[in-house]
Amino acid sequence: MAEIQKVDNGAYNHLMEIPTKYWCRHKFGTWSKCDTLVNNMCEVFNSVIVDAREKPIVSMLEDIRWVSIYAGRDKYEVTSIHGGKEKFVVDLKNHECSCRKFQLSGIPCAHAMTCIRKMCFNVDNFVANCYKKETYSECYQHVVYPVNGPNLWVKTQFDDVLPPVYRKPIGRPKLKRMAKTHPKVNATPEPPPGIFYR
């Protein structure tokens, strides 16, 4: 600072008015940062928002946001990034999302993942137990006893149980598959008016 004061006293006074955490390198935070202005992540982000960038600032910000807003009691409101007006309510406590993918599959959907990542929770805690290794091991922990072939079965005093007698249906066998119930859609499109195909 003494060197700066020798060069320009006005610059020294200006810097002394600003907290050092904003301009002095030794006061900067130690978390990961990158001083490269263009990298792959920026390129991907720019390609996603290319349509929104041509809009006015408010419309652009509405189009590009992907935000999970905490609503209290482990509930979040998640908005879509792709310009839609869709909003989803995620309840992490009950493992529910209004898109219903979370409840149906037991695996967190994209909306739930946004909230889980924002809160720095462990994703494994939100996956259904049926997908976990412990459940798989528990299902197959019992012995599946092998069975001998019919030639080694114990003979009983009862008659052998046989399958029912096969009767060949009358008439020609049907080889075509059954037609679908919905109406058939014409594969060839209708020609435009005034054009005739030969």
TrEMBL record:
Coiled coil start-end: none
Keywords assigned: Metal-binding, Zinc, Zinc-finger
GO function term, MF aspect, one: zinc ion binding
PROSITE patterns: ZF_SWIM
Biased composition annotated in UniProt, kind: Pro residues: 189-198
Disordered: region residues: 177-198
Segments forming domain SWIM-type: 88-120
Stored SMART domains: ZnF_PMZ
InterPro entries reported in the protein's UniProt record: Znf_PMZ (IPR006564), Znf_SWIM (IPR007527)
Domain of life: Eukaryota
Protein's UniProt name: SWIM-type domain-containing protein
Species for this entry: Arachis hypogaea (Peanut)
